[in-house]
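Quick log. Single chain, no ligands specified.
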Amino acid sequence: MFKFDGETKGVKLILERIENNKYTTEKPNGEYLTHKEVRSFARCLLAVLPSLKIFSKEAEIKLLLAALSASGLPHYDRSFLASQILNLLEKDEEENSSSVENF
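-> predicted structure:
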C-alpha cells in the first residue's frame, strides 16, 4: 500500500508519542497531543494495520487501536493503551524471530 513495506518502526514512534502524552496540561516544551490528534493517529494506524508485518497479535492490536480511537477517554487511558500496543508489538516480534530461528 503506497509503497509501504509493513515495518512497524514508524508505528512504534507514533505510539510512543501517545504513550508519553499522559496529561492534558501543556508540557514544558509546548508539545502535547490533543484528544482529537490521538484519535486521528489511532484511526490512521487502524487503516494501515493490515499492511503491517504483524503475525500473532493483530487481533489484540486492532481491538486496542479501536479503543484508542474512541471518544471520551482521558489522556492517561490513551497512554496506557498505547503502551499495551507497544508491548504486543514487541511480543509479536520476539515470537516471530524465535519461530524463524527455529525454522
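The chain has four helices and no strands.
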